[in-house]
Amino acid sequence: MRNIKLIVLICIGLNYGGFGHAQSRDVVTQKKELEQIKQEIDGAQRNLDSLRNVEKKVLKEISDYEQKANINKTVLDRLTKQLSGLRRNIDHSKGQLETAESSYNATKGRYISNLTHYYSATRNPAVTLKGDLALEKEYLLRKIYLKALSHRYRERLTVTEKSWQQAQNDYSGLLSEKDRVDKAASQKKREFTVISSQKAGKEKDLSRVRQKKESEADRLVTLSEAARQMEELIIRLEKERADRERGQRPTSFVYETGNFVSYKGVLTPPAKGTITEGFGWKTDPITKLKSYSPGIKIQGPKSGRVLATAPGVIAYVGNLRGYGNFVIIEHEDGYYSTIAGIGSLYVDKNQIVEKSEVIGVTESGLVKYELRRGKEPVDPVEWVKLESLK
Question: Could you tell me which CATH class the domain 253-390 is placed in?
Answer without folding.
Answer: mainly beta
